[in-house]
């Protein structure tokens, strides 16, 4: 284990906890704000927090427009679209259920990496993982589908659309931003601040509802912006750079557990059998698809293949990408 890996795993844990609690914070914000206003407050507080971090560390921002163009895409894919979709979804479903559906992010990441990253190939393990994972989504949605409840079903579809945005964002980050040598803090500030720009552009249309500010609403938005948007994005970007996009997306293993527990304890939400079983199946599918849980007999075949495989000299490490 490298010297930096324990710190990166800790960063992954803190980011997972922050994002797991975000679904509770969104519910608090919706007590006095519309979904688009929740997004606007979230990226506003997140941008201020990250700007202060930039000033404290004297971190310089990139000056080329191409980098900012890629960061603005991250702001759309990682911030404006999914934040608004999740907030809108939570007007129709419980925060715990939204947290469970957020666990599909690694599944979308696998699909999109296979489609758009040439070095990735479709394997039996990944195919089985995807099938199992999305079967879990069906289990989660089945009670509402059978009951004909259109509102909850639309909320669940909005969550899936949000996680698909995250999947595209992870691929975009890997292909177009990380190779440019941009620092994690700069990436985090760039995507959140451009997410604020997207929110301000949409505000005349989406954020016209009256606002009711209470200590719960303000506190929820501060926590959502500072923890669930500012700090978590810095940590997750660092994990993506150090351990890879697929591993970074596994923050959704822990966040649904935290989201369900907080929803039940703080908000008094019901923990349904479908959500627990379906969420577990989703996580099982993600674990299989990412190779964290091997298929029966796979370990033995891999070990035999490794013994038979001739030794191949390793190429020298690639030169660092200039900033």
From TrEMBL:
* Annotated transmembrane regions: 36-56, 68-89, 95-116, 128-147, 153-173, 185-206, 212-235, 247-267, 273-293
The annotated regions of Pro residues compositional bias extend over 312-323
Could you tell me which residue ranges the EamA domain spans?
Answer: 9-141, 154-287
Coiled coil, from the record: none
Fetch the PROSITE patterns from UniProt. PROKAR_LIPOPROTEIN (PS51257)
InterPro entries to which the protein is assigned, alphabetical: AA-Vitamin_Transporters, EamA_dom, EmrE-like
Main subcellular localisation: membrane
Which locations, inside or outside the cell, does it occupy?
Membrane
Report what the protein is called.
DMT family transporter
Q: Which family does it belong to?
A: Belongs to the EamA transporter family.
Which stretches are tagged as biased composition: Basic residues? 299-310
Natural source organism: Aquipuribacter nitratireducens
Q: How does it sit in the membrane?
A: Multi-pass membrane protein
């Amino acid at each position: 284990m490298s010297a930096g890996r324990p710190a990166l795993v800790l960063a992954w844990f803190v980011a997972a906890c922050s994002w797991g609690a975000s679904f509770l914070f969104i519910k608090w914000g919706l007590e006095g704000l519309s979904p688009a206003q929740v997004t606007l407050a979230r990226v506003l507080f997140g941008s201020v927090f990250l700007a202060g971090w930039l000033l404290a560390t004297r971190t310089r921002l990139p000056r080329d427009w191409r980098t900012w163009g890629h960061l603005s895409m991250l702001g759309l894919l990682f911030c404006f679209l999914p934040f608004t979709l999740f907030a809108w979804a939570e007007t129709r479903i419980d925060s715990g259920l939204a947290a469970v559906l957020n666990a599909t992010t690694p599944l979308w990441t696998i699909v999109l990496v296979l489609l758009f990253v040439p070095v990735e190939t479709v394997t039996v393990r990944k195919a089985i993982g995807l099938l199992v994972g999305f079967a879990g989504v069906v289990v989660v949605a089945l009670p509402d589908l059978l009951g004909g409840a259109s509102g909850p079903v639309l909320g669940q579809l909005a969550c899936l659309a949000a996680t698909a945005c995250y999947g595209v964002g992870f691929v975009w980050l890997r292909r177009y931003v990380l190779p440019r040598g941009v620092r994690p803090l700069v990436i985090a500030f760039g995507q959140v601040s451009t997410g604020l720009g997207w929110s301000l552009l949409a505000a005349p249309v989406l954020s016209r509802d009256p606002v009711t500010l209470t200590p719960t609403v303000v506190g929820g938005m501060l926590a959502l912006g500072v923890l669930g948007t500012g700090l978590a994005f810095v940590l997750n970007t660092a994990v993506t750079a150090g351990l890879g996009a697929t591993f970074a997306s596994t923050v959704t293993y822990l966040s649904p557990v935290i989201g369900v527990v907080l929803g039940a304890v703080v908000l008094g939400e019901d923990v349904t059998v479908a959500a627990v079983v379906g969420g577990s199946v989703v996580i099982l599918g993600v674990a299989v698809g990412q190779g964290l849980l091997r298929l029966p007999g796979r370990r033995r075949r891999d070990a035999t293949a490794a013994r038979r495989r001739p030794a191949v000299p390793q190429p020298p490490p690639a030169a660092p990408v200039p900033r």
